[in-house]
Amino acid sequence: MRIRAAILKEFRKPFSIEEIDIEPKEDEVVVNIKAVGVCGRDLVVWKGGFRNLKPPLILGHEIFGEYEGKPVAVFPAKVGKECLKLSEGKENLCNDYSIIGEKEIGGYSEAITIPKWNLIDLPDMNYEKYAAAACGVATIIHANNLAKLDKGSKVLVTGSNGGVGIHAIQYLSNLYEVYAYVRSEDKAKQLKDLNVIPITSFDFYKNSGKVDAVFEIVGSLTINESMLSLKKEGKLILIGNISGEPINIIRPAFIVMNEISIIGSAAYNKKEYEDAIKTIGEGKIKPFYKSYSLNEINNAYNDIINGKVVGRAVLKI
Ligand SMILES: [Zn+2]
Questions:
Q1: What average pLDDT does the segment 52-62 reach?
Q2: What pLDDT is stored for residue 206 in this prediction?
Q3: What contacts 315, CB < 8 A, 6 or more positions away?
Q4: Per-residue three-class SS string for 207-221
Q5: What's the pLDDT score for residue 128?
Q6: Do residue 241 and residue 118 come from a single domain?
Q7: Which residues, by Cβ under 5 Å, contact ligand 1, an ion?
Q8: CA of 259 to the centre of ligand 1 (A)
C-alpha cells in the first residue's frame, strides 16, 4: 500500500514528506496511525547522536492508531522471538530489541506494518494523550522499578518540563517527595498545578536537605550538579543524555567517598508500557503536548529545539 511519510534524509536537515510503499510480512498486520509522539530520542537521532544509524530514516516509535477499527497502541520496539522466550520481562536488554523507526520504517507516517505481538488494546480513542505521555511514563516506571526506593523518599528529577520529565514527575509524585528541576522561573510556573516542588537551582538542598535519588533525564548538562544533591549511598538513575555529548564526571571522589550508585535505565519492557497506558487511561497523568499535522513536522522540530513545546510534540495523522 502507498502511504505518506516524513523522511529524514540528512542529519540536522528538514524532513521531506514523500509517498512510499509498505507491505506487511507474513506475521505482520497494518495499523492506521492516528497520532505519534516526537520522542527526545528522535531528536538525538535527528542530530546524528546515534552513531550506528544512517539516513534515510523514518523515525517515530510512540505510535497509536487503529487496527480492524479498534484503538491500539504499538509497543515501540521489535523483539526477536527467541529473546522473548529467554528474557522474562527483560526484553529491553535483548540484543535484537530495536526501537521502531531506527532499523525499520517508523511512525512518522500514515500506516505501519508490525508483528501482532506489538499491539496493545487502548482504553479509548484519545490517541493524542497517549502519544504525549506513554513513552515517558513507561520510561519512569522502568527506572523506578530499577531504583528500588522506599515510599516517601526524596527524589530529584532533571528536565522536568520535557516530554519524559513532565509526565515522570506526575507518576513519581504519587510515591515520593519530588523536586523538579527546570531551567527558568517561567518553566517552573508550568509545573504549578502538579504535586511537586519546582526548583531552578541545584543549591536547593542547602535549605531542603539532600535527596535519596536523582532521576537524571538530561545527562551531560546537569549530571555533575545533580549528583552533588545526593545523600550518602544515594542513587543516580541515568535515563538519558539529550545533548548526545560525552559525560565528564568532574568530582569522581564524591561518588567514591559517598558510595553513590549509578544505575543505567534502558527504555522499558512491554508490561511496563501496558502499565503506562493503563495509568494514563485512568486519568492519573495530565498529558502535556502540542499537536501538529504530518506536514508540519519541521515546525514541530523547530519548536522543540527553541523550547516552545511543554511536554511532547505530537503529530496528528
Ligand atoms: Zn519515546
A1: 97
A2: 93
A3: 6, 35, 36, 37, 38, 60, 108, 131, 291, 292, 293, 294, 296, 297, 300
A4: HHCCEEEEEECCCCC
A5: 98
A6: no
A7: 39, 62, 135
A8: 32
Last residue of a domain, one of 220, 241, 264: 264
How long is the chain?
317
- For residue 208, how far is its CA from the centre of ligand 1 (angstroms)? 33
> How remote is the CA of residue 140 from the centroid of ligand 1, in Å?
12
Q: Which three cell numbers stand for residue 165?
A: 520529565
Determine if the pTM surpasses 0.85: yes
Split into its structural domains, the chain has a count of 2
What are the tens digits of pLDDT across the range 301-310? 999 999 899 9
When the pLDDT of each residue in the chain is averaged and rounded to a whole number, the result is 95
Contact criterion met (CB below 8 Å) for 156 and 179: yes
Q: Which letter does DSSP use for residue 118 in this model?
A: G
Q: How far is the CA of 120 from the centre of ligand 1 (A)?
A: 16
Picking from 241, 264, 287, the residue at the C-terminal end of a domain is: 264
Taking the chain, what is the end-to-end CA distance rounded to the nearest angstrom? 17
Q: Are residues 118 and 142 in the same domain?
A: no
